[in-house]
Amino acid sequence: VRNDEAVRPIWTVIGRLDGSTRRDQWVIAGNHRDAWVYGGVDPSSGSAVLMEMARALGSLARGGLRPARTIVLASWDAEEFSLTSSTEWGEEHEHELREKAVAYLNVDAAVSGSTFSARAVPSLAHLVASTAGVPDSAIDTRVGGGSDYAVFLNFLGVPVVDLRFEGPYTVYHSAYDNHDWVSRVADPRFLRHAELTRIWATLTLRIANAELLPLDERRYARRIGDFLADVRQRWTRNAPRGTSADLTVASTALARFESAAAAHAARASTALELDDRPALDALNRALMRVEPALVDRTGLPGRPWYRHQVYAPAFTYEPE
């Protein structure tokens, strides 16, 4: 094995399509372009999809169809080198992103087979499912790690989505992950590439153009309830006999969250019916504050960079 240990710059490439009416609200879509060897699937399939989405959005804008919110497209470098590009960019622009970021939509290894797969925070799960034409249950809402959405969710508190088509990916991170394997095995005729482009672009535009941001916080509250039930079950299985898990504080906070989410949904329904723009603006600002409110600036014990109080990856890519 001969390794090239030269020090080189890392390049983060950002494109921005300014919104027509809400330019200070950002929908961010990103993919990394660095690879182990050739990277036919990981990440070049995703890079091809990103470039095609950029071409389509640019064509719409030139034709006069500019999104209401700003769309930011990111091509990350050094993802395989500990998520360096996206992490450094997120940390550098932390304060601006906390104010402006609505959601981060990630595509990594876009196509390694024919099965659609997605993970998302619960507030975005139904939107992803309806856009992709799959049941809500198909969206994984136990978000772990392993790609460029990490800084947005775990450090900044921005809602995230990760999209791909999966299959038997036996050439992962090898010299055989190349264009030939993609064209013969993963996606002959590149139909899944085209489909993921449509899903990703449609999802981006649905968020960017929505009068009311499609963030379902009632669903988020229900999923947190599932997580608390799971904690109780784990404690029952593993704790010493005669002890119990005191989740009173968490349960009380969840009840408040459920009540606030229900009240917000009722106000949103009325505002949409009346086309009350000032009320909708206020409701959207409230929705943008939900995910950041789940972030504690002091971080997790022993892991201060990970700030989210619901989600964190284990020391593998799996969710804790």
Question: What descriptive keywords fit this protein?
Answer:
320 residues, alpha/beta, 7-stranded mixed β-sheet, 45% helix, 16% strand
Please tell me about this protein's structure.
There is one protein chain. The protein is of the alpha/beta class. Helix content is 45%, strand content 16%. The chain is built from eleven helices and seven strands. Strands 1-3-2-4-7-5-6 form a seven-stranded mixed sheet. β5, α4 and β6 (139-140) form a beta-alpha-beta unit.
Task: Describe, in short, the structure shown.
The chain contains eleven helices and seven strands.
Q: Could you state the order of secondary-structure elements as H and E? A: EEHEHHEEHEHEHHHHHH
CA-based gyration radius: 20 Å
* Annotation field: number of helices: 11
Q: What would the principal axes of the Cα set say about the shape?
A: globular
Strand content: 15-25%
How can the largest sheet be summarized? Answer: 7 strands, mixed
* Fraction of helical residues: 40-55%
Which helices and strands occur, and which strands form pairs?
Elements: E1 13-17, E2 22-32, H1 44-62, E3 69-76, H2 84-92, H3 94-100, E4 101-111, E5 115-120, H4 122-132, E6 139-140, H5 150-156, E7 160-166, H6 179-186, H7 191-209, H8 217-238, H9 248-274, H10 277-288, H11 290-293
Parallel strand pairs: 2-3, 2-4, 4-7, 5-6
Antiparallel strand pairs: 1-3, 5-7
